[in-house]
């Protein structure tokens, strides 16, 4: 079982930056893809970005160029740096982990509790 804990959320103004961090409780962190998602009120959970165990990165169009995902395998953490924040970025942000077993990528099985990001003037 992997426990994920997000931190770094808060209230900011439009145009500000914020960095979210996710810490994983596992000794095999390097064998997991890490992803970030968000869910705004009344909307479905939205994929934002993922960084694979071999550091391949993919972004959703909605955040490409503004958000940067990273990971530190020595610290068991993944960060999401968010720049030029907009009111529509307001949501609960979640990190997730999916294991890679024998070269096969599995489902996003593990989720953090979420951290609120509010962008408002």
Written account of the structure:
The chain is mostly beta strands and about 120 residues long. Helix content is about 0%, strand content about 55%. It has no helices and twelve strands. The protein has strands at about 5, 10, 20-25, 30-40, 45-50, 55-60, 65-70, 75-80, 90-100, 105, 110, 115-120. Strands 2, 4, 5, 6, 9, 10, 11 and 12 form an eight-stranded mixed β-sheet that branches. The radius of gyration is 14 Å and the shape is elongated. It starts with a strand and ends with a strand. About 30% of the residues are buried.
Question: Could you give a short description of this structure?
Answer:
The protein has 121 residues and is mainly beta.
Which labels suit this protein?
single chain, 121 residues, mainly beta, eight-stranded mixed beta sheet, four-stranded antiparallel beta sheet
List the helices and strands and how they pair.
Layout: E1 3-7, E2 10-12, E3 18-25, E4 32-39, E5 46-51, E6 57-59, E7 67-72, E8 77-82, E9 91-101, E10 104-105, E11 110-111, E12 115-119
Parallel strand pairs: 2-12
Antiparallel strand pairs: 1-3, 3-8, 4-5, 4-9, 5-6, 7-8, 9-10, 9-11, 9-12
* Helicity range: under 10%
Mean of the pLDDT scores?
95
How many helical stretches?
Answer: 0
Q: Low-confidence parts, pLDDT < 50 over ≥5 residues?
A: none
Shape: elongated
Main structural class: mainly beta
Strand tally, please?
12
N-to-C series of helices and strands: EEEEEEEEEEEE
- Biggest sheet descriptor: 8 strands, mixed
C-alpha Rg, in Å? 14 Å
